[in-house]
Structure formats: structure tokens, C-alpha cells
Amino acid sequence: MFYFRLLKHVVAALLPLAALLTAGSAKAQDEAADAFIKRMSTEVLDVIKADKSMRGGDIAKVVALVDTRIMPHVDFQRMTASAVGPGWRQASPEQQKRLQDEFKILLVRTYSGALSQISDQVISMKPLRASPEDKEVVVRSEVRGSGDPIQLDYRLEKTPGQGTGWRIFNINVMGVWLVETYKSQFAQEINAKGVDGLIDSLAARNKSNNKKN
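RE: above sequence
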């Protein structure tokens, strides 16, 4: 399917998303969204480049890093609900939890693959077109390395409450918004096999990815 093929590009392009390493939530709360992404990107890229085991392909270590330090900055419930579409409202609470869990595993593996490929990439930020009071913004950037520049944009929301800061709820890779891409494919799965069929499909994909690592 197209969204599985797209994952190959996501793996190569999502390096800056690995930048969401926790580094002072109070500071992040006051930052503009683009400054948040830029600062975290630079910090984490430097850390990973200095870690020989991660650069050597220690996937278990990379997965642990992604799961514990990056994923807390991603709004998985919103991402999953948006990707599943109307089927989300049809799903039971148990099905919703399973969908979110499997979707998280899929993305964690994707981000981990991106982290393990870090070499000489740098991030170039584009001007932020937003007002200081905006609660949802789009941060646009490019990943630049040995190949052609790769477009990588984020949709972020400013979450209320002390210490929460910005959270990602969608990603654009080379002109394709990830949630919208999944939404089309997930709808086909649900129409053909129901919500449980989509869960089974995601679980099978995750199992296959796990065997490859």
C-alpha cells in the first residue's frame, strides 16, 4: 500500500522529530513553536551523533529513547482519532485503546529507524507564519544532508497547563501529510474488514517490522 511505501521516506526524513528530547519543560512552555523544534533538533542530533551504539544500529536502545523521551511530546490520541476518521467514533473504548497502541508502535518504529540513520543531517528552519497567541501552528523545515533536501513540516498544538508545551499532531513529509495518508488507507481497511480488521492489519505490520529489527 502507498502508506507503507511512504514509511520508507518517513524513516529517512523524520530525523528532526527525534529532536523532541525533554530539556526543560518550563522553557519549552514559553518558546515559539519553531524555536522549540529547532532547539530540540540541534540538541538531540548532537546526542545521537555522539552515541556509537545508536549510530551502529542498536535498535533496542533507539526504540527505548524514542518511547520514553520523544513520544510524550506527540498527541497520539488526536493523531490516531484523525487517522482512523469516522471509524474512531464507531470503535469501543477497548478498540480505541488497541488502535492507539498499534499506531504508536508503528510510529515509534518509524522514528527509531530515522534515528538509527543519523549521520551528517542538519535542519534548516523556514519562517514561522503565526501569531504569538496562536494555539495551533505549522512549523516548516528542511532536512539537509548528503542527498536532496527533504521537506518536513509539523502541525503543533499549544497544550494548556504548566510544563506541557507544544505537542505534535501531524507531520508533512515531502508534501504529504501523514495523518491524511493513513486516513485514506485506514478507511479502506475499516470498510473491508471493520475496526477489528484494521487493528489486526496494524498488529501484523508491527510484528513483521519487529522481526526485521
